[in-house]
Amino acid sequence: MASPYHSVSGKSKNNDDGRVVFLASTLLWPLPPDLSGGSPDPIHVSLTFGISVALMSACLGTAGAVHLNPAVTLSLLAGVRMSLASALLYMIAQVLGAITASGFIRSVTPPEVRGDLGLNVVTPGVSEFQAVCVEMMVTFQLVLCVFATSDQKAGLSKMAPVIVGSSVTLGHLVAIGFTGCSMNPARSLGPAIITANFESHWVFWVGPFTGALLATVTYDLLLVPRWNTQSLIVQAKVWVSAGVLPFPTCYINCACM
Predict the structure, then answer these.
(1) Is pLDDT of 119 > 50?
(2) Fewer CB within 10 A of the terminal residue: the chain, N end or C end?
(3) DSSP assignment of the chain, as one string?
């Protein structure tokens, strides 16, 4: 009898490739003021990230469960939509992809243009608590969009790349002035490791992870309730499985920044 679970080894490879392409395309924007004529345009930056996510989703989503964001992966794990083993593999791939992309950009970019590789930092005048709240809010709306577009009953799956990409763009428009906008711990970790700058780095893990978990609770318990005694028994098996269940397919077509 064939197993109902999908292997994730190949998908983790796709996930790693997607993270490299995504960060390589988005970390090129932070030109220093003397070369760009001023600070990077927030609209330019926001559109770059949003379009990159939409394209990665459209191009790699057909290859399987593609996640570019540990916060999204955590939300799927918390919602019993994937196994612990799968989540770990995805997060390892995401982190390795982010570090590889940041290292690649540093190696091919002239020092006078390199800047800080898009390092996420808390803006002066913004407290760390405020920064965590901002990151929590923008990640919250991102994960809600992921869940909504991947719910077959909602009929939005075909629009997933556009909707999730727009969500990423919105998050950046809101948060750039506060934190540079992470929404994605791996995206923040790559430049931090390459530049050896971890000042307030914890903000970019606690904020997105908290927002992702709150979004999971909101969607599964309030917006689209899906928990009962029977479903808990059945779906809890996913946590100890070797992959992800094809139901409710919320992980499919979600390439999220």
Answers:
(1) yes
(2) N
(3) ---SSBP-HHHHHHHHHHHHHHHHHHTT----HHHHTSSPPHHHHHHHHHHHHHHHHHHHGGGS-----HHHHHHHHHTTSS-HHHHHHHHHHHHHHHHHHHHHHHHHS-HHHHTTTT---PPTT--HHHHHHHHHHHHHHHHHHHHHHH-GGGT-GGGHHHHHHHHHHHHHHHHHHHHS--S-HHHHHHHHHHHT--TTTTHHHHHHHHHHHHHHHIIIIIIS----HHHHHHHGGGGGSSSB-SSS-TTTT----
